[in-house]
Amino acid sequence: xxxxxxxxxxxxxxxxxxxxxxxxxxxxxxxxxxxxxxxxxxxxxxxxxxxxxxxxxxxxxxxxxxxxxxxxxxxxxxxxxxxxxxxxxxxxxxxxxxxxxxxxxxxxxxxxxxxxxxxxxxxxxxxxxxxxxxxxxxxxxxxxxxxxxxxxxxxxxxxxxxxxxxxxxxxxxxxxxxxxxxxxxxxxxxxxxxxxxxxxxxxxxxxxxxxxxxxxxxxxxxxxxxxxxxxxxxxxxxxxxxxxxxxxxxxxxxxxxxxxxxxxxxxxxxxxxxxxxxxxxxxxxxxxx
Length: 289
Fold this sequence. Notes:
Layout: H1 2-10, H2 13-20, H3 24-38, E1 43-46, E2 49-52, H4 54-81, E3 87-93, H5 100-111, E4 116-122, H6 124-133, E5 138-142, E6 151-160, E7 162-166, E8 187-190, H7 196-207, E9 213-216, H8 219-227, E10 233-235, E11 248-252, E12 254-255, E13 258-259, E14 261-269, H9 275-288
Parallel strand pairs: 3-4, 3-5, 8-9
Antiparallel strand pairs: 1-2, 5-14, 6-14, 7-10, 7-11, 12-13
Helix pairs in contact: 1-2, 1-4, 2-3, 5-9
């Protein structure tokens, strides 16, 4: 069935054979053997071209679900049979809005399907605490303190800071904005209830927001608050302005004549530099590059 799926997906026997690391004649024989076992044709062959029969199209769609269920069953059975299964626990910045992490996770899970990946979400201090106490193997976090020799401190990117605000707000027409110009508009922060005070102190004392603060538990909730005109949201991990149609405007955040920047890093303990930790970290680094 996997050989058949590869032929249909690639629409080529030669490309499917290359993907499956067997010869073209071998994959053709496998498809013919499958058809003999089923008792009907899956493919209608014309010279060097082929198309799916009605039965073949139905079989292909159902086989995708069947193979996915089979692979899931095997992974779960392997997990249950072994207490020492390879695992990687990653701490992810709750308010981070970039896509690089998702792409790295997709690549890692494809390359190492047998490694169980767990994700722990948190704000800066929560992630630091998890890393310090061994609750995670690696974290994607912003840099708020000096680098420690106890950790590997891999700088992933230097991100430009932005704020998101309702496109209806007159401020949305500005080419850039400073924290002082936002003093009369509430700042919406994405954080857990336990971290509200810590995050407020950082954004007030370090970044310079002086107005009221509102809180959301995730990015979706925060953006709905922005669209509803309740305030603005500082955006984490964005290197360039995005597009949100007519609902939200994204404005560069400046201090003086320069856009505010922040380091985003992968951190892990030097005494926990296992193969999978470093492999994922460098995959993540390549996504930023």
